[in-house]
Specification:
Elements lengths: L1 E8 L4 E3 L11 H14 L1 E5 H7 L7 E5 L13 E4 L3 H10 L4 E4 L3 H9 L5 E7 L7 E2 L9 E10 L2 E8 L1
Parallel strand pairs: 1-6, 1-7, 3-4, 3-6, 4-5
Antiparallel strand pairs: 2-8, 7-10, 9-10
Length: about 170
């Protein structure tokens, strides 16, 4: 199973200025990349806070929202699933349903959990040309993880896409 962590970051490694902010500061090239990868994979896993900033399921892919306050009545068949499964159980479940790739779409707590559990195979980071100075770091409270740089691509005037594999 390919487990792709996808994030847009500032040059100082932040994914948001504040935690209830929609990621609307990213470039159109990053948005295009995110849409294409999540549709190709078919599944987007995110934390409840990130989902709340978007406010609706993204079409044409399965949106999985991790929460500890589970309410199955909010689920929409084939489009939106709330879950309180652990990351390992969730990946195993998706694998058994035939998915070969999933996107971990944030936020920081979800990125950190999947990294801590050793489930992430690839990181795709779009570095946007700005400094937040403070805000939500891409990860917190994880041990050092060695990454293997696969590619560096300038995808827009002010945006660089980095692809890493986890060794
Ligand atoms: N720049 C980017 O690429 C990007 C991408 C995504 C998000 N973001 C930003 O990141 C910010 C949100 O990040 P965040 O870290 O504060 O929140 P988050 O990771 O989006 O969501 C946290 C919530 O997820 C649920 N959760 C976390 N770990 C869980 C687990 N192990 N099992 C079950 N549920 C779990 C809990 O929901 P409950 O409270 O419901 O239990 C928790 O409150 C937003 O500002 C968003 O815009 C940026």
């Amino acid at each position: 199973m390919n487990v792709l962590l996808i994030a847009a970051i500032s040059v100082d490694g932040r994914i948001a200025k504040v935690s209830d902010q929609l990621a609307d500061w990213t470039s159109k090239e990053d948005k295009r990349f995110f849409v294409s990868k999540t549709k190709e994979s078919g599944v987007l896993i995110m934390g409840r806070k990130t989902y709340d900033t978007i406010g609706r399921p993204l079409p044409n892919r399965l949106n999985i929202v991790m929460t500890r306050d589970f309410d199955a009545s909010k689920n929409i068949e084939g489009l939106l699933e709330y879950t309180q499964k652990s990351p390992c159980e969730l990946i195993a479940d998706l694998q058994s349903r035939g998915y070969e790739s999933v996107v971990i779409g944030g936020g920081a707590s979800i990125y950190s959990t999947f990294l801590r559990e050793g489930l992430v195979t690839d990181l795709y980071l779009t570095v946007e040309s700005l400094l937040f100075g403070s805000g939500v770091s891409i990860v917190d409270d994880i041990d050092k993880i060695q990454l293997d740089l696969q590619s560096v691509e300038k995808i827009g005037e002010q945006s660089v896409l980095l692809h890493y594999k986890i060794l």
